[in-house]
Design a protein that fits this description.
The complex is a heterodimer of chains A (126) and B (431). Chain A has 3 helices and 9 strands; from the N terminus they run E-E-E-H-E-E-E-E-E-H-E-H. By secondary structure, chain A is α+β, with helices and mostly antiparallel strands. Chain A has a 6-stranded antiparallel β-sheet. Chain A has a 3-stranded antiparallel β-sheet with strand order 4-6-7, with no helix packed on it. In chain A, strand 6 and strand 7 form a beta hairpin. Classes of the chains: A alpha+beta (126), B alpha+beta (431).
Chain lengths: 126, 431
């Protein structure tokens, strides 16, 4: 499932842009591939990242997956509920399964993201 | 180079080939998305259909159905078959009765495990041997060389080949061009298995026959008209569980009949994920992890010294086994940890540390089962006492963890603070 209005990376992260703030998580395709998640390592608030740098680790009972920042920015808030409920990502990856919010420091880093249509086309090639 | 070296090692270069769809591939695609299919041991196999946890629970509470058609199935026939198997495997094949199966190992003369196997005796001069899918090409090559007398079977005194007095014919039972009696493995494991199979039989006494069947015993019977070899063996730790060997052309029909009959009882098809978590929870070894693999784990270290009969006059690899039996210092242990929400899963290679924070070994395999996670670990024998408290240190799994100072590897004897504490539990568990 791909949601309209969000932006996407080839590594299967999504980004919701609201002004200078980006909320991010992993896509439905990513959570499907990983299976039932049992652990999420969240970034620290204040951490500065450039786009495509590792921001979090999600682990299922069988695999660990790196999550990359879709944009260049600073982490302003994390979804600490995932600490005890990692399954929120499986259940609702685009809403209650969000991972963190970033203050965008380089707007140009948004240019590399795909819209929903492009991402769906990309998924169709996999 | 391929074949037997003067030092007794058997070297094999696996053929490079595209993974093949299993016999049941089309059935899997009816049950799960193509993205859940993954290459495994030369075949494209399902990782899971519903969830690993649901499939694991189905096997413990009802039953689960597994595609094991990728497992190698070889036939040895003729007057020389027993002698060849007795010499080529570590267990006592001469003592194996018709209708019984036996676990054992095929070693090279240097003592390396080539595979762990199950030998089934179907008739006086007819044996079926089930080998791991990943090792099947190697085992076939080895056995052909062995029968041709081109394998070093003993180093001291140096001996190449042994000649069976009577003929021994080797046949691939999954290859339908080799004869009409062909077999592939489909496994039904869990307490509801008997009820499911009884529904497929017109024989009113089949349920009694199945429940009276001893572990590692088998019989041949028709289920819904399909010729089956039904054996009380499996790889899940289930007290009740069967492997069904059927003709490859009948496998899909049997698969669907079992799923249909099992549906009201809660039977689920199970993928590789649950197959792994079930065998780890039960303490069963996987070749390449708890046997051989990077630590070169022997049957003694794995907890299967009983399947290596050092009192036999001869088997290939006996001399190195006799030495290892006296000197081994590490062993495979089963460790239990919490899997509560927010507890990071243990991974293979994570170091195991003792109460003083000293590394005593490493995790080989790990899995979550309900509220617990289990690790099979290779640790010092003196640390492996049941009830002993041990810890695990999580190795760095990402560049940022390395930056934060987390170790990427750890040697025995190094100091580390345990991230998670658990207990050594019994080596095996039955469910």
């Amino acid at each position: 499932m791909v949601v309209e209005g969000l932006l996407y990376t080839k590594d299967h992260e999504w980004a919701k842009v609201e002004g200078d703030v980006v909320t991010m998580g992993i896509t439905d395709y990513a959570q499907e591939q990983l299976g039932e998640l049992v652990f999420v390592e969240l970034p620290q608030v204040g951490k500065q990242l450039i786009a495509r740098k590792e921001i979090a680790v999600v682990e299922s009972s069988k695999a660990a997956g790196d999550v990359y920042s879709p944009v260049t920015g600073t982490v302003t808030e994390v979804n600490s509920e995932l600490g005890t409920k990692p399954e929120l990502i499986n259940e609702d990856c685009y809403k209650s399964g969000w991972i963190c919010k970033l203050q965008v420091t380089d707007k140009k880093s948004l240019d590399n993201l795909m819209n929903a249509k492009k991402y769906q086309e990309y998924l169709d090639t996999l | 180079m391929q074949g037997s070296t003067p030092s007794g090692q058997f070297v094999f270069e696996p053929p490079v080939a595209e993974p093949a769809p299993s016999v049941l591939y089309e059935e899997h695609l009816k049950l799960t998305n193509k993205s859940r299919m993954s290459p495994f041991a030369g075949y494209v196999m399902p990782l899971w259909y519903s969830t690993i946890a649901a499939e694991h629970q189905a096997v413990r509470r009802a039953a689960g159905l597994f595609d094991c058609t990728h497992m190698g199935v070889l036939e040895f026939s003729g007057g020389g078959a027993v002698g060849v198997l007795h010499a080529a495997t570590t267990n006592d094949v001469r003592k194996l009765a018709v209708g019984r199966a036996q676990y054992g190992y095929i070693l090279d003369a240097a003592g390396n495990i080539l595979d762990d196997i199950i030998v089934y005796r179907r008739a006086e001069q007819l044996y079926m041997v089930v080998v791991n899918a990943a090792n099947e090409p190697k085992i076939k090559a080895y056995l052909k060389e062995l029968l041709a007398g081109r394998v070093v079977v003993e180093i001291e005194p140096h001996r190449t080949g042994f000649s069976p007095c009577e003929p021994c014919v080797l046949r691939d039972m999954r290859d339908t061009t080799t004869g009409s009696d062909c077999r592939v493995d489909v496994a039904l494991q869990g307490p509801a298995s008997i009820d499911v199979l009884a529904k497929l039989s017109s024989d009113g006494s089949i349920a009694e026959k199945l429940s009276g069947l001893k572990p590692f015993a088998f019989f041949e019977e028709k289920l819904s008209g399909i010729d089956c070899l039904i054996c009380r063996t499996g790889y899940t730790g289930s007290k009740v569980g069967f492997e069904l060997f059927v003709h490859p052309d009948q496998a899909a029909r049997l698969w669907n009949l079992i799923l249909e009959a099992g549906k009201p009882l809660g039977v689920l098809p199970c993928g590789l994920g649950a197959r792994d978590s079930l065998r780890i929870e039960a303490g069963l070894p996987l070749y390449g992890h708890e046997l051989d693999g990077k630590f070169g784990i022997s049957p003694f270290e794995a907890g299967y010294g009983w399947a290596v009969k050092l009192d036999k006059a001869f088997f290939v690899g006996k001399a190195p086994m006799a030495k290892i039996a006296q000197t081994y210092e590490m062993q495979v242990a089963r460790l239990e940890f919490s899997a509560a929400k927010g507890v990071r899963p243990i991974r293979p290679d994570d170091p195991v540390v003792d109460g003083c924070g000293v590394c005593v070994g490493w995790v080989l395999s790990s899995a979550t089962a309900g509220e617990k996670q289990y690790a099979l670990a290779c640790i010092s024998r003196n640390a492996a006492t049941e009830g002993n408290t041990l810890g695990v240190y999580y190795l760095a799994r990402s560049p940022s963890q390395v930056q934060q100072g987390r170790a990427e590897r750890m040697d025995k004897g190094q100091q580390a603070q345990a991230d998670l504490t658990g207990t050594v539990v019994g080596r095996f568990e039955k469910f």
